[in-house]
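wait is this the right file?? whatever heres the structure
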């Protein structure tokens, strides 16, 4: 049972940390402002921009792309011409921060494209993105992926520690703690990853595994059920969770 749990945990963490993600980010400091009287940021549209890309980087939510377009005065299917100045639903005091975030997002996008052909250049671009916007967890998480793949665990831990309160870094730290037999540390980091209203499917699966191994079977069953009931969870992860739930039922 414990061996199977460890193998399943490894699968969960592989799903969570593989690749330089373009669409998954963790908690952002930006929120949509609904009051019409609130001063908003201006943003100069760049070549290669699209609404989903801005929503991912600025609002931490790709599904908000239509709202972003409408707020700027465009139909969601229409894009401004490069060089056009638009309004984005972020308080104007964050205009410089929004510009830096978009510059960092472009670097992350280029790094993602370079990863398969040139990992060294990928790492360089991700570090540039982190320097451009140190508060953003996406470059840090992706740098950590490369460090873990290279076996540089101590460097990964040092890099992640300042962001352990954020969803994805907390999940990665939980996985590292688990591999080192630190059950208390694993539970602590999983609690940090679960604190958001809608935890990622990988977080639910990992928590279900750890709670079952530590004897909290009811909590494990409840959280695995949440994963199985999530229609947006990756199908392969839901299948693995179902297999594990059946394993629990057999014990």
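ok assuming it is, sequence goes like this
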């Amino acid at each position: 049972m414990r061996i199977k749990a460890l193998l399943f945990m490894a699968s969960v963490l592989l799903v969570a940390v593989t690749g330089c993600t373009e669409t998954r980010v963790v908690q952002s400091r930006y929120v949509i402002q609904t009051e019409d009287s609130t001063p908003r940021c201006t943003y100069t549209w760049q070549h290669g921009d699209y609404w989903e890309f801005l929503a991912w980087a600025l609002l931490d939510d790709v599904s908000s792309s239509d709202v972003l377009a409408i707020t700027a005065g465009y139909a969601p299917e229409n894009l401004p011409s490069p060089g056009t100045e638009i309004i984005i639903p972020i308080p104007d005091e964050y205009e410089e921060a929004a510009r830096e975030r978009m510059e960092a997002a472009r670097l992350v996008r280029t790094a993602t494209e370079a990863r398969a052909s040139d990992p060294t250049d990928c790492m360089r671009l991700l570090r540039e993105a982190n320097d451009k916007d140190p508060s953003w967890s996406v470059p840090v998480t992706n740098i950590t992926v490369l460090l873990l793949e290279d076996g540089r665990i101590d460097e990964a831990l040092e890099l992640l520690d300042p962001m352990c309160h954020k969803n994805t870094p907390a999940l990665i730290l939980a996985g590292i703690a688990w591999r080192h037999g630190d059950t208390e540390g694993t539970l602590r980091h999983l609690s940090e990853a679960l604190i958001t209203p809608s935890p990622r499917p990988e977080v639910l699966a990992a928590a279900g595994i750890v709670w079952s191994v530590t004897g909290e079977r009811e909590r494990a069953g409840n959280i695995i059920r949440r994963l199985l009931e999530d229609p947006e969870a990756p199908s392969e992860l839901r299948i693995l969770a179902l297999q594990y739930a059946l394993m629990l039922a057999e014990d």
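The chain has twelve helices and two strands. so i think its the right one actually
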